[in-house]
Amino acid sequence: MGTSSARRATADAMGTIAVFFPAGILFAADSSAFTGSRYLALAAGAAITIALAAFVLRRTPRFSTPADRITLFRAVLVGCCATIIVPTLGTALEPGWLLIAIGTVAFVLDALDGRVARHFGCASQDGARLDMEVDAALLLVLCWAAVGALGWWTLAIGLMRYAFVAASWIRPALKAPLRPSMLRKFIGAAQAFALLVALAPGMPVAIGATVVTLALLLLTVSFARDVSVMEWSYHQHPDGAANHLLTP
User: Fold this and answer.
1) pLDDT at 245
2) Segments making up each domain of the chain, as ranges
3) pLDDT under 70 in the chain at which residues?
4) Cys staple from 45: which of 79, 98, 101, 219, with CB 3.0 to 4.6 Å?
5) What is the structure's pLDDT at 243?
6) What b-and-e string marks burial along 8-37, b requiring 16 or more CB atoms within 10 Å of the CB?
């Protein structure tokens, strides 16, 4: 059973990468950018897809679930989004409706993998971690796409989670898990939604900037609240902060 599960997980990860390349090549070739930029676009999309698929391969024991396959498909979509936006970086070109369409599908499917995991009874911390990494990658890609229209400040949305992870390497309090929160999930989803709205062709810059600014403010408040709770809990229960945070 263990060997079969490991083989299935390996096949799912390799299949994810294999599915990306035909789509990535098509999107890169469809770009009006010069040849070198097309290769860079394909490489960026491939790097993101491979990095996300690798999370399945690093599991011990190695396994894959129906919910993971949906999340891995989302990883392919995120890789395709990266391929689409790279040729537009530093230019006057807009990513266009293709990015919006693929990004929206990746965003909407985020609500499906969790339901599938609960339906089949295959929810796991590893699955949640993979889902979170795909969400973070999608946000970062959309932030890069928004730089041309709104400015470099939009990267704060995509980089905030990575900054938090980096801070947890030196702050033990930030490694403790938090209680599940619907508000936190809503604020996280609002980031991708706001960026997709701002990136829609024809969207006035003022409206796009306002929507993304509000989303960033919500995200900042959410992170600040979580950090304060984790720090307070750690100082109150230094030997069992994680268990304390998970206690209902």
Assistant:
1) 42
2) 1-150, 152-248
3) 1-2, 31-35, 92, 237-248
4) 79
5) 45
6) bbeebbebbbebbeebbeebbeebebeeeb
